[in-house]
Amino acid sequence: MVQPIANADSPVPHTHVPERMIDDRPREACGVFGIWAPELDVAVETFYGIHTLQHRGQESAGICTTDGRRLSVKTGMGLVAQVFDEQSAAELEGIAAIGHTRYSTTGASRFRNAQPILLEDPVTSEAVAIAHNGNVVNAAQVRAELTEAGEVFETSTDTEVLAKYLLRQGEGQDDEDELWESRFTALMHHIEVAYSLVLLTPGRLMAARDPYGVRPLCIGRVGGRYVVASESCALDQLGAEFLRDVRPGELITIDESGLRSYQAVVPAQPAGCVFEHIYFARPDSILDGQAAWHSRSQLGVELAREHPADADVVIGVPDSATAHAIGYSSETGIPYSEGLVKNRYVGRTFISPDQRLRDLGAHLKYNPMPSVLAGRRVVVVDDTIVRGTTTPRIVKLLREAGAAEIHMRIAAPPIRHPCHFGVDMATRQELIAARQSVEEIRQHLGADSLGYLSLDGLQRALDLGKPTCLACFTGNYPVSVQTDFEIDTLTVPLVTAPVPTSTNGNGPSNGNGPSNGNGSGGNGTRRGARSDETMVALAPERR
Prior knowledge:
Distance between the termini: 12 Å
Number of helices: 17
Number of strands: 28
Strand content: 15-25%
Helix content: 25-40%
Strand order of the largest sheet: 4-3-5-2-11-10-12
Mean pLDDT: 83
């Protein structure tokens, strides 16, 4: 089904967001890492671990070690290599360590919010360090409860909310294993999503994943010792063997006795973030048993089946859409080539561009290759369009390089709803697909045609055998979410949006996605939602 032609005289809204001038993609929240290995230099191992996870956050980094008696921590603003080098990392001696690299979704980008954060355990009087990836959806409510109970907060992060709630639990437990098991059971009952976290005490390393498994976390082994990380690529960097993912609702404890698993709560229906497969995870990471690169290539294959194009060359928007473009090319037989060269470091500087450079927009990050593009019909594959601020600039670059036709193909459905679980995407008002039809978006981009992958095509391509969180496409979240949440405060009133009720009366459902309670996914389209059939638009002269 083709969208109606938009009125050429009607202005197409264009939201200019200065901080998205260079790149409009969603931003991941954080990467976490932990290792117990007395025989190794754990701080240096952790340095390389979080360096491998740098793509998950570039605002701050930190490492905390234990020597068996006390904790030592160093954090700083910037990239991992700006905060540490091998020498400074080696000064953090110990038998175990945790590390963190951060992109803020809750709590501003400032030094006091860098992780790991250090607290005192009121039960054992020991120091405790914690680092987490995700976004706690009821953080404001829990923070208010804790403040009323007398807690004082030093940061604006939901990580501190998690930590202080956790440490208030388990009074009266004499056995340390039972203490932490009871604490995590209480935490997971009261705070359902979204977190994958690592925690360090003088005598143990712990890792846990929320009951829905929204954010990834895996376990590896190196030299008979254990490692945990947000992604398996961090294990590969250290020569560690990938063992398995941490299960939703599971607590992993690692100490001198080895590794122990405790299922703190019964897992909910799985709701792993689908964007880990589409964009976030490094291509060489293993997610749900398959390489992210393979998943992205299959998304490109499905996209080609749904939205073929008469074209001479296929290019991807580097680097994240490269695998999608290769999959599209393999399915259509249209040759793949690099048509855009990416400056991978332009977003890594603290020097703000002046107005002249700001006006160049996407030219700061991408440079087109006229030898590939001039006079040719070009399929441009990208993973997402969020606000629609960057893609028009890319299309303009390709036109200026001589492309005869530009056919945009997006390897995901339209993003119409914000993420509340640890992805910095946008507010709903800023999402272009929440405000405009596919045809209106095509006009806004200046492309000759535009095709989005359908929700069914997405699920066929991933073929995970279990539900994922599709809320950014469908608006149906696995749990109730706060809809008005300020980025630098956790003291706003809690506002919740009800989860839609399934038609079978068994609980909330999001169609093909996860549900909470006893509901199960179905194949129906949510009432009031746009149909997945309306995913392609052609310029008038191309119809």
